[in-house]
Amino acid sequence: MRFLEALAISLVFVVFSVSFHALLVYRYQSYHVFTVNRALAWLLLRSDSLPYRNNFENLVLETIPNVVYIRNGSSSKYLRNSSLVYSFRAIWLGFNGTISPKIVVVGVEP
Amino acid sequence: MSHRGQVLLLAVIFLAFSIIYAANRFRKPVPVVAEYRGELQSAELIHAARLYWSNGYTSMDSILSLLTDLAKKHKIYMPNVSYENNFTIIGGLTGYGFYRTEYNVSVIFSACWNWRFKGFYFKDLHGEKVLYKCFLLVYYHNYTAPQWGSMVIYPIIEDPAGICDIVRVKDGVWMIGYPAHNDEYTLIDEYGLKLVIRE
Question: So what's the ipTM on this one?
Answer without folding.
Answer: 0.77
